[in-house]
Amino acid sequence: MRDDPRVVALVTRASGGDQDAWHELVDRYAALVYTICTRYRLSNHDIEDVGQNVWLLLVEQLGKLREPAALPGWLATTTARECLRVVTAASKTDRLATGLDDSVLFVDDAVIDEELLLAERNAALRAAFAELPPRCQQLLSMLVSDPPHSYTEINAKTGIPVGSIGPQRARCLDRLRRSGSLAALGDGDEKIGIRGGEPDA
Amino acid sequence: MRNGWDDERLLAALSEAMKARAAVPSWFIETGKNAFAWHNIDAELAQLTYDSNEDLREAAAMRSETASIRALTFTSEHLTLELEVTGNSLLGQLFPARAGVLEIHSRAGEITTTEVDEIGCFSVDPIPDSPFRLRSRTSDGTHVLTGWITI
């Protein structure tokens, strides 16, 4: 699951100076960096500080990443390290004064790993979604909105007959499942997509 | 090999993926996108190797007396930058001494410059009130960039 050719291509392009590729990388992984910051319960100010440092470090490392496909893991580790730096600095005084245990500051590696897996899955799902035809994107957006739209509401907004929504939903989800973006997530025990599948033309 | 998730599970996962992305504030994404301005900037990176605030925190925790001057040192392979806060300005010196120009970069991407004299001294006045980083361009072509500084 660490060798998504799309991520490798984005890193290579960004490293060559392609700003659009960089923006796409940030869009793809901002949620990973942000979620880890919230795990450390940082203030918005500290989250901005950590984010700034993580992305700057990445900009500097772009051409040096030995395995561009390992980027999500690199981001998770770097973010966790930067968060720890911030919480440690902020609480140093309190801790020395109160004798509070260091361990309250730490977030378990297993939690970071879990966030990483989830973020990679989420990023792949969003990438697969973005490859869908607009009508599928519209229908699925309505179905996953909070609260989800009812079939009657979907019918009112899109004109799709209520009786056709179910079959269309199934077809759109099948396209999503066949996306190449999800095929890259195939090495775990369970597979979301169909391996080697490419979206229909 | 039809071993993908069923429709309900796939839809629930998609919903979760969309929510995770929507939870990220737009300013956070902007910060990330803006960082690309630093791509391929011609400079060696200087690491923060000393910050008097670190001493100060420990001293405060020990309830001991302490000097109140803020001093920072950044070190790169070829150059060391020493900084000291004096009144309303930031005084600095490059080691080994050499003349050149010092750029002050703000987070918003604005750049101002100040001169570095032949014994490597410079002053930044006034001290920026938001985080900044310094890039020295010396006459011999050594370009060094510090990390973000908050005074």
Describe it.
Chain A has a domain at 1-131: RNA polymerase sigma factor, region 2, helix turn helix motif (Rna Polymerase Sigma Factor, Chain: A). In chain A, helix 2 (19-39) packs across helix 3 and helix 4 packs antiparallel against helix 5. Chain A has 201 residues and is mainly alpha-helical. Chain A is built from 9 helices and no strands. Chain A is globular and about 60 Å long. Chain B has 151 residues and is of the alpha+beta class. Chain B folds into 2 domains: 7-37, no CATH class; 41-145, no CATH class. Helices cover 23% and strands 35% of the residues of chain B. Chain B is built from 3 helices and 10 strands; from the N terminus they run H-H-E-E-H-E-E-E-E-E-E-E-E. Chain B has helices at 7-22, 26-34, 52-61; strands at residues 44-45, 47-51, 71-75, 80-86, 89-95, 100-106, 111-116, 121-124, 132-138, 143-145. Chain B has a 5-stranded mixed sheet, with no helix packed on it. In chain B, strands 2-3-4-5-8 form a 5-stranded antiparallel sheet. Chain B is elongated and about 70 Å long. The termini of chain B are far apart. The model of chain B has no long low-confidence stretch (mean pLDDT 86). The chains are: A mainly alpha (201), B alpha+beta (151). Chains A and B meet through helix 2, helix 3, helix 4, helix 5 and helix 6 of A and helix 1, helix 2 and helix 3 of B.
